[in-house]
């Protein structure tokens, strides 16, 4: 039996080594089109990808979309056109280390830096003095919380936030259930570099997944910001989410943020509601936006 496992191991090692050196696959036509229609700006020498569409003429409304982990601004493509029918500007970016944005390594990735990149993008677009609607998901929820904290502190040069809509993000560390893969990537160890290459996530184990630890460390700052501001806040929730389980997450959310409104989508909707149920997600968001 032992010899059999040794033979399998000896065969697997060169195969794995060969795979680790295979270049990433080419972009699909849809992703190539998404990249071609977007732009880049430079933040501290790093290229950040973003989309910026002009929608309703004459409307002053602007919405900025903040994507989740481990994806990109492409998460919003199914509701993009619908948003342009309501907002004058629809803007989304790939956070540093994600999507088409640069992925420096080694690099100390942080929620604070990602929030500063959002602020820099809006300065780049000349929108720093405009009132912004934020729509976020997962990792983007935490970035939105940091932006909300800065707005609450009335710091010069920060965003002026008109409204905030969160979705399926682990804003409470105590109810967040990271997947096994996330735990392995976050904590490092022998498997971490292999897993990151196998998934084409070259930098996650060295920084991106540290947002899970940052969320615990800065819980008072970020949850406190949600609880103390007076702007309209909404949460769109896919109840089958294994990362933010029902009903524990929702019970804590309603207890902590009694002023916030909530939209619960159909029972089969999970962690990516904007992709799994784009029409339900869009209708829930429009209902929120049109309520104030």
TrEMBL record:
GO terms for biological process: acylglycerol catabolic process. Its main location: endoplasmic reticulum. Residues 62-153 form the AB hydrolase-1 domain. One of its GO terms (cellular component) is endoplasmic reticulum membrane. GO terms for molecular function: monoacylglycerol lipase activity. Keywords: Endoplasmic reticulum, Hydrolase, Membrane, Signal, Transmembrane, Transmembrane helix. Coiled coil: none annotated. It comes from the Eukaryota. It is a multi-pass membrane protein. Residues 1-18 form the signal peptide. It is found in: Endoplasmic reticulum membrane. Belongs to the AB hydrolase superfamily. This is Mesoderm specific transcript. It comes from Nomascus leucogenys (Northern white-cheeked gibbon). The lineage of its organism: Eukaryota, Metazoa, Chordata, Craniata, Vertebrata.
């Amino acid at each position: 039996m032992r010899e059999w496992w040794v033979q399998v191991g000896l065969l697997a090692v060169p195969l794995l080594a060969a795979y680790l050196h295979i270049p990433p696959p080419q972009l699909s036509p849809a992703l190539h089109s998404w990249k071609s229609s977007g732009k880049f700006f430079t933040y501290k020498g790093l290229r950040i990808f973003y989309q910026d569409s002009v929608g309703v003429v004459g409307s002053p409304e602007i919405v900025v979309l903040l994507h989740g982990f481990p994806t990109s601004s492409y998460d919003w493509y199914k509701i993009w056109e619908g948003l342009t029918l309501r907002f004058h500007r629809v803007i989304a970016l790939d956070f540093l280390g994600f999507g088409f944005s640069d992925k420096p390594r080694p690099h100390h990735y942080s929620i604070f830096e990602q929030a500063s990149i959002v602020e820099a993008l809006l300065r780049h677009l000349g929108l720093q003095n405009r009132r912004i609607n934020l729509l976020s998901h997962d990792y983007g929820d935490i970035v939105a919380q940091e932006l909300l904290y800065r707005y609450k502190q009335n710091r010069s040069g920060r965003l002026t936030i008109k409204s905030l809509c969160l979705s399926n993000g682990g804003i409470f560390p105590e109810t967040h259930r990271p997947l096994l893969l996330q735990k392995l990537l976050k904590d490092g160890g022998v498997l971490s570099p292999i897993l990151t290459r196998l998934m084409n996530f070259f930098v996650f184990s060295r920084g991106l997944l540290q947002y899970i630890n940052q969320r615990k460390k800065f819980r008072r700052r970020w949850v406190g910001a949600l609880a103390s501001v007076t702007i309209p806040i909404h949460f769109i929730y896919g109840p089958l989410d294994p990362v933010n389980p029902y009903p524990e997450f929702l019970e804590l959310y309603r207890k902590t943020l009694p002023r916030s409104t909530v939209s619960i989508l159909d029972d089969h909707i999970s962690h990516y509601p904007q992709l799994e149920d784009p029409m339900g997600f869009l209708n829930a968001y429009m209902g929120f936006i049109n309520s104030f």
